[in-house]
Specification:
With 39 residues, the chain is mainly alpha-helical. The protein is extended.
Amino acid sequence: MPVPTHIFNPPFNIVRSSYVVFGVTDLARSRAFYADTLG
C-alpha cells in the first residue's frame, strides 16, 4: 500500500474528535496497526 502524501493546508480544520467508528474486516490486524501507529 503506498504511503499517502501529506496535505499541509487541508480545506478543513478539525478542532477535536471524541468518537470515531471504523468498520474493519480483520480486527487483530486493525488493532495492531492502530496500537503501533497511535500508541
